[in-house]
C-alpha cells in the first residue's frame, strides 16, 4: 500500500509540474500529500519491524554467557542449556526444559521435580541425562512440546553420546 501511494504521488507530482493550469497545482498538492503519507507508512513499518529485531539483538547480548552447549527446542524457539560432567554424562538445566515444554519451573532449592531428582550444577538445578527421559515420557500425552523435546534430546545429545562411548570402547 505504501509503495502504491509513493508511486501515485510521484506520478501526480510529475503531472502537476508539467501542467500549467489550476489542475496542475491540485495534482502537485495531492502528489506531495500522497508522497508524505506513503513515506510515513514506510517509516512506520520499518520501525514496527525493526523494534522486535532490536529487542532480540539486545536480549541476546544481555544473556549470560553459557560455557556448555545449547539445544534448540522445536517450534517455540526455546533454548535448553546443557553440559557434561567429568564422567561425560549430560545434564540439562531444569528451568530451560520446563519453559520449553510450557510447564511450571522448579522453585529455588527443590531437589526433586516431577518425581525426578535434580542435580545442582553451580546455581542451576538440572536433570541428568538418565533422568530427563523419565521426566518427559509421561508428559507427551497432553503436551506435544514434551514429545518433540524428548525426540530432539534423544537424537541430538543422547545418541551422539552413546555413539562416542561405543567408539571409545571399540577404538580406545
Description:
This protein is of the alpha+beta class. Helix content is 58%, strand content 15%. It is built from 5 helices and 7 strands, in the order ααβββαββββαα. It has helices at residues 2-17, 22-62, 94-101, 131-136, 144-171; strands at 69-72, 79-84, 90-93, 112-113, 116-117, 119-121, 124-128. The strands form 2 sheets. A 5-stranded antiparallel β-sheet has the order 1-2-3-7-6. Strands 4-5 form a two-stranded antiparallel ribbon. A hairpin with a 2-residue loop joins β6 and β7. α1 (2-17) packs antiparallel against α2 (22-62). It starts with a helix and ends with a helix. The mean pLDDT is 81.
Based on the model shown, name its key terms.
172 residues, two-stranded antiparallel ribbon, elongated, 7 strands
**How many beta-strand segments?**
7
pLDDT averaged over residues: 81
Largest sheet: 5 strands, antiparallel
What integer value in Å does the Rg equal? 28 Å
Strand content: 15-25%
Termini separation: 66 Å
In order across it, which strands form the biggest sheet?
1-2-3-7-6
- Form type: elongated
What structural class do you assign from the helix and strand content?
Answer: alpha+beta
Helix content: 55-70%
Order of helices and strands: HHEEEHEEEEHH
**What are the low-pLDDT stretches, counting only 5+ consecutive residues below 50?**
none
Discrete helix count: 5
Q: In brief, what are we looking at here?
A:
The protein is an alpha+beta fold. The protein is built from five helices and seven strands; from the N terminus they run ααβββαββββαα.
Amino acid at each position: 500500500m505504501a509503495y502504491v501511494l509513493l508511486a501515485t504521488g510521484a506520478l501526480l507530482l510529475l503531472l502537476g509540474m508539467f501542467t500549467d493550469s489550476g489542475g496542475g497545482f491540485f495534482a502537485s498538492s495531492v502528489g506531495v500529500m500522497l508522497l508524505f503519507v506513503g513515506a510515513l507508512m514506510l517509516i512506520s513499518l520499518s520501525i514496527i519491524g525493526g523494534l522486535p529485531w532490536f529487542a532480540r539483538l539486545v536480549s541476546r547480548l544481555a544473556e549470560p554467557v553459557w560455557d556448555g552447549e545449547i539445544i534448540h527446542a522445536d517450534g517455540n524457539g526455546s533454548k535448553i542449556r546443557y553440559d557434561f560432567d567429568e564422567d561425560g554424562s549430560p545434564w540439562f538445566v531444569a528451568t530451560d526444559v520446563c519453559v520449553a515444554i510450557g510447564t511450571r519451573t522448579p522453585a529455588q532449592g527443590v531437589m526433586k521435580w516431577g518425581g525426578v531428582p535434580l542435580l545442582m550444577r553451580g546455581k542451576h538445578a538440572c536433570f541428568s541425562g538418565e533422568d530427563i527421559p523419565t521426566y518427559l515420557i509421561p508428559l507427551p500425552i497432553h503436551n506435544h512440546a514434551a514429545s518433540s523435546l524428548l525426540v530432539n534430546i534423544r537424537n541430538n545429545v543422547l545418541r551422539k553420546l552413546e555413539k562416542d562411548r561405543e567408539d571409545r570402547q571399540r577404538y580406545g
